[in-house]
Design goal:
The chain has about 500 residues and is α+β, with helices and mostly antiparallel strands. It contains twelve helices and 26 strands.
C-alpha cells in the first residue's frame, strides 16, 4: 500500500507543469527529494526506489501498447516522422494514433531481454528502454553490448550505427556503437536501466557490460564510457520532450536526463559528494543553467563578461605568415563549437570574417568578443550559424557563405578528422573552408592554389584543458562552473570544480 501511494504522489508531481508535459524545477526537486544528501551506492539505491514506481504499457502494436506510446515519445508533430536513431532511413506514422507498428520498423530494446533471461517483465515494456528502429539496423546490432567499435563490419549510414567488434574489459567482443549525436541519449538510457532494474540477474551478452548486483551494476569500463558520452552529447530538446512524454505515460522519469550531472554522483568524479536535488543543475522547463550554456538567449553585457568554456583550442590556416595571422578561436562545450570575433568584410556577401583574437603572448582576449559563430549539429554534419541566428549556405556560384534566415537553404557542413588530430570543414559539394588574403575572410573557395587563398582551415582537436585567458574587463572575481554557468554572488558553492579568472579551483 505504501508503494502504491508513493506512485500516486509521484504521478501528481510529474503532472504538475508549466506546459502540457514539462516539469518545473520545484516539482522535479519534490519528485527527487529522497535523493538529498546521498552518495554513491546509497544514491543509486534511492534512484532505484523512485524510478521503479511506474505503470508500463503493454508490449507491441496493440491498443495502448508501446507503439501507441511512440506516437507521443518519438514523433515529429510537424511531419509525423517517426524518429529513427539507428539508420538514415525515414519512417512516418499515419494521421492518427491507432497504436499500429510502422512497416519496416521494429521495437528495439537498448537492454535486450536475453540479458536478463528473456522474461517478459517491466524492463521488456519500459519505454525508456525502447526505441523505434529500422528493422535491418535492429537485426545487425543484435543483442551486442554498446561501446566503441574498432573493427567495423557494417554501418547504417553516415552518423548512425556501427556494428563490429570492440573492447570490453580488454577483451575483443561483438559490439555496436551509436552515431555521435545519439551517444549521450543512449548512455542515459543505459544508466536508467542499470539503476531501475538493478535487481535483475544479467547474463548472455549483457554480462560483458553489466554485473549482477545493486552496485555498481554497470561495469567500470561501461560507466566510464557512458559518462564520457553523456558529457559530449548533451541532453537536447528532443530528449527532454521524450522524457516528459514517457513520464506522462508511465508515471516515472529518467532522472539521468532531468539531472544531467547525476551520473557523476553515482559512478564518477563526485561519488564522495552528497547529491542535492534542490541545487543541482536540471533540464527542467524553468532552469536555464544547463541549456543556456548551449544556446544563450541574451547577448553578453559589459557587466557580465563572457568567460571562455573549459575546452579551448585554435582554428587557423596553418601556413598564414606571421605578419598576417588569422586565428579563429573555437571553444568546445561538450561538442558545441563557438568561433571567434567577426570583422567587416570587403564584399557584400557574408563571409566568415575574423580578426585576430590573440596577442604576441598567446593570451586569449575573451570579454569583448560578443559575436560568435556556432556549428549546430544536424544529420550528417553541422549548420554554421552566426551570432544573430542566421545560417550560412554554399550557393555554388560565388563559392562563399551566403546568409539565410532559416534552415531551409542552409548547407550541412561536415567536420572530418585528419590523421594528425585536426579536422577539415567541408561542404557537401567538396568546397573546403579556407582563408582568403584578398577578402580577409573565410569562405568555401573552389581553388586552393590561387594566390589570394591560403590552405584549408584546420580545426585542431578540441580536447585540451583551459588555456591562458586574459579578460579585458575585471569580472570582480565571478565564479563559473565547468559548464560555463556563472554562479550567483553570495551563494555557498556546492563541492566540486569551478573556474575563477580562467583558473580552476576545487570546493570541498
Amino acid at each position: 500500500m505504501k508503494s502504491y501511494f508513493k506512485m500516486i504522489f509521484a504521478a501528481a508531481l510529474i503532472g504538475f507543469s508549466t506546459s502540457a508535459n514539462a516539469i518545473d524545477r520545484h516539482s522535479l526537486a519534490q519528485y527527487a527529494a529522497s535523493l538529498k544528501g546521498l552518495k554513491k551506492e546509497q544514491l543509486k539505491a534511492a534512484l532505484y526506489d523512485i524510478m521503479k514506481q511506474k505503470t508500463v504499457l503493454v508490449y507491441g502494436g496493440k491498443p495502448k501498447g508501446t507503439w501507441y506510446g511512440f506516437w507521443y515519445s518519438d514523433r515529429d508533430t510537424a511531419t509525423n516522422e517517426c524518429y529513427n536513431r539507428y539508420s538514415d532511413k525515414k519512417f512516418y506514422f499515419g494521421n492518427k494514433n491507432d497504436g499500429k507498428a510502422i512497416a519496416g520498423m521494429n521495437i528495439e530494446h537498448s537492454f535486450p531481454k536475453s540479458w536478463w533471461g528473456s522474461v517478459e517483465n517491466d524492463a521488456w515494456c519500459d519505454l525508456y528502454n525502447l526505441y523505434p528502429s529500422d528493422s535491418k539496423a535492429n537485426s545487425e546490432k543484435s543483442n551486442y553490448v554498446m561501446g566503441v567499435v574498432v573493427n567495423v563490419k557494417s554501418q547504417s549510414g553516415a552518423g548512425y550505427d556501427k556494428v563490429g567488434t570492440g573492447y570490453a574489459d580488454g577483451q575483443l567482443v561483438k559490439m555496436w556503437e551509436p552515431g555521435d549525436r545519439f551517444k549521450g541519449e543512449f548512455s542515459r538510457s543505459y544508466m536508467y536501466m542499470a539503476t531501475t532494474y538493478q535487481d535483475l540477474s544479467f547474463g548472455s551478452e549483457g554480462a560483458k557490460q553489466l554485473q549482477t548486483g545493486a552496485y555498481p551494476t554497470l561495469k567500470k569500463w561501461a560507466s566510464d564510457l557512458f559518462r564520457q558520452w553523456s558529457k559530449r552529447d548533451r541532453v537536447d530538446n528532443q530528449e527532454i520532450n521524450r522524457n516528459n512524454a514517457i513520464a506522462k505515460l508511465q508515471h516515472n522519469r529518467n532522472l539521468f536526463i532531468d539531472y544531467p550531472n547525476l551520473a557523476e554522483y553515482v559512478w564518477g568524479d563526485s561519488m564522495d559528494v552528497a547529491f542535492d536535488p534542490d541545487m543541482s543543475i536540471t533540464t527542467a522547463s524553468d532552469d536555464s543553467r544547463y541549456t543556456g550554456v548551449i544556446v544563450p538567449e541574451d547577448p553578453v553585457t559589459p557587466e557580465d563578461p563572457k568567460v571562455t568554456p573549459q575546452n579551448v583550442t585554435f582554428v587557423k590556416t596553418t601556413t598564414a605568415p606571421v605578419t598576417d595571422k588569422r586565428y579563429l578561436l573555437v571553444a568546445s562545450v561538450d561538442g558545441k563549437f563557438f568561433a571567434g570575433k567577426t570583422v567587416p568584410g570587403t564584399k557584400k556577401y557574408d563571409y566568415l570574417h575574423c580578426s585576430p583574437v590573440t596577442d604576441n603572448t598567446g593570451k586569449i582576449t575573451v570579454s569583448d568578443d560578443n559575436l560568435y559563430f556556432t556549428f549546430e549539429q544536424e544529420a550528417g554534419g553541422y549548420y554554421i550559424k552566426d551570432g544573430k541566428g542566421r545560417y550560412f549556405y554554399q550557393d555554388g556560384v560565388h563559392s562563399n557563405f551566403n546568409v539565410v534566415k532559416s534552415k531551409d537553404k542552409a548547407t550541412v557542413w561536415t567536420i572530418t578528422p585528419n590523421a594528425n588530430g585536426t579536422f577539415l570543414i567541408k561542404s557537401p559539394d567538396g568546397h573546403v573552408v579556407q582563408y582568403s588574403k584578398k577578402y580577409k575572410s573565410y569562405g568555401a573557395y573552389k581553388n586552393a592554389n590561387t594566390n589570394d587563398v591560403y590552405p584549408m582551415l584546420y580545426m585542431e582537436d578540441p580536447t585540451l584543458g583551459i588555456m591562458t585567458i586574459e579578460t579585458v574587463k575585471d569580472d570582480g572575481g565571478a565564479v563559473y562552473n565547468l559548464q560555463g554557468v556563472r554562479m550567483p554572488d553570495g551563494v555557498k558553492l556546492q563541492p566540486g570544480i569551478y573556474v575563477r579568472s580562467g583558473k580552476k579551483f576545487f570546493v570541498r
